[in-house]
From TrEMBL:
Classification lineage: Bacteria, Pseudomonadati, Pseudomonadota, Gammaproteobacteria, Pseudomonadales
Family annotation (CDD domains): fer2 (cd00207)
Name the UniProt record assigns to this protein: Ferredoxin
Range of residues in the leader sequence: none
Domain annotation 2Fe-2S ferredoxin-type: ranges: 3-96
Record Pfam families: Fer2
Gene Ontology molecular functions: 2 iron, 2 sulfur cluster binding
SUPFAM superfamilies: 2Fe-2S ferredoxin-like
Amino acid sequence: MGQSFRITETHSGTSFSCSDEQTVLAAMEQQRQHCVPVGCRGGGCGLCKVQVLSGEFDCGRMSSRHVPAEARARGEVLACRLFPRSDLAIQRPAPGEPAR
């Protein structure tokens, strides 16, 4: 198994571990955390959109409809396609705030 990193969702203060071989969403679900909404788990619905505030990461393919290039440049990604390469601080849209 690869390295393990600490993921912190800043709105809720929830923190959990995630291996570099697993997506942030999969790790969150595996550890029974609920800080990011769960949708299709396939990169197509946009429900699990988060912004990476700090840390290094890689991403798999995501719907450009939900994460256009300018959003990705701001660190906005889908948690179901987010692979940590260091500890990460992420934030989801505040309740009632639309994902950009």
